[in-house]
Amino acid sequence: SQLFNIDLIRSQFPSLDLVVNDKPLIYFDSAATTQKPQCVIDSLNQYYSGGNANVHRGSHSLTGSSTRRFEAARRTVADFLCVNHDAIVWTKGATEALNLIAQSYARTNLSPGDEILVSEMEHHANIVPWQLVAEQTGAKIVKLPVDPETCTLDMDAFYQRLTERTKIVAVCHINNVTGTRNPIEEIIEASHRICAVTVIDGAQGIVHERLDLTRLGADFYTFSGHKLFAPAGIGVLYGKPQLLDAMPPWHGGGKMVEKVSFEGTQFSQSPTKFEAGTPNVAGVIALADAIHWFNNIDLIGAEQHIASLQKSLYQGLSQIPDLRVVGYQPGSSIVSFVIDGVHPSDIATLLDQQGIAARSGHHCAHPMMDALNVPGTLRVSLAIYNTQQEISQFIEAMEIACDIL
Ligand code: PMP
Q: Where's the Aminotransferase class V domain (predicted)?
């Protein structure tokens, strides 16, 4: 991969040249979704203008090449995660992948009295599917608490609450409010000692680390393409093949069957049995193109760049009176903060007038907000295309906003 070069990176993202409210855009909301490099935009365009056809159906040439590219993309994702291609299931996103695990794996394996250990810092997408399946099966959700001072998981509580009743442990790789990186290696190892299945929500983690899921040993790992420079509407479920093979389908329809008759239906093997209906072929191919692009990035250099931006951001914000950074995680891509007596959305609106896109609110993490005893935060989330100059402009804009408020 090439050495990290911020100018070269930025030049590949046309949307970074946008003007918002008469100001050059400063995009600080990459944890919500990343901007897209030109090669990903071209990929979508090329697919629809030069190769659109349904996959795994019919025998004409276009469907053949579309199917080959679709399955090659599965291998690209599998190689990226260091797993076999039949362990990769296409979904609409992380949310759908987590619901698939809940409704297929958990619904058939949980009994009354079984426990699902879910961390308090989870995005709603890694809480609500467990609540739905707990209701259906009589299983119980056990909360894995967050230390409100450090915004990290309370690992003593984890070991206390991990018992022979625990059947599933669901935690995020990296949290979306503070950027906390959980000790997933330790969590997976401890969970496996009591034969609990681990579900790692990689929606935020996937873009900051190169992964080897075979070595990590997670049973399930999920992410969305749109936070990894790919389009929205495509996501990935990784599952250990022996788990996927034993799981029943959850959506019925075309493509996921070998033979349908009114007497009974024979399903395809996994992963196909989980992919009912026409898939997002363009999204799948564009995700593979995003990963090819991402594989060429010097990720260590990029992460050092992000960490140095995040440090300057933290130092700048620390000078602002009455501003409190929530659960600062050195080296992460996120800074979340509150200002006494000021609603985060009022700050976000004033920043928007300066062309700055930052996120205010609860970040789809009500339980974490409750644990931290804040109604919401203002969140700045950085990516490889942000610059020190943007950080300086942001701090100036914050000072102006604070004078107004
Ligand atoms: N988990 C985490 C940690 C997230 O940040 C998000 C997206 N905000 C999700 C899950 C859900 O992802 P999506 O909405 O793309 O399905």
A: 26-394
pTM for the whole structure:
0.97
CB 333 within 8 A of CB 372: no
Choose among 267, 242, 211: nearest CA to 87. 242
**Percent of the chain residues past pLDDT 90, beyond the cut:** 97
Contact between residue 24 and residue 15 where contact means Cβ atoms under 8 Å apart: no
> Catalytic residue among 39, 151, 195, 364, which?
364
Partners of 337 in the beta sheet?
Answer: 325, 378
Q: How far apart are CA 9 and CA 156, in angstroms?
A: 42
DSSP 8-state class, residue 78: H
- Mean predicted lDDT score pLDDT of the chain: 97
Residue 305 has pLDDT above 80, yes or no: yes
Exposure on the CB side of residue 115, measured as CA atoms within 13 A: 16
Q: How far is the CA of 319 from the centre of ligand 1 (A)?
A: 32
Q: What is the pLDDT of residue 1?
A: 59
DSSP, collapsed to helix, strand or coil, labels residue 18 as coil
Which of 180, 181, 221, 364 for mutating ligand 1's site (highest number of atoms within 8 Å of CB)?
364
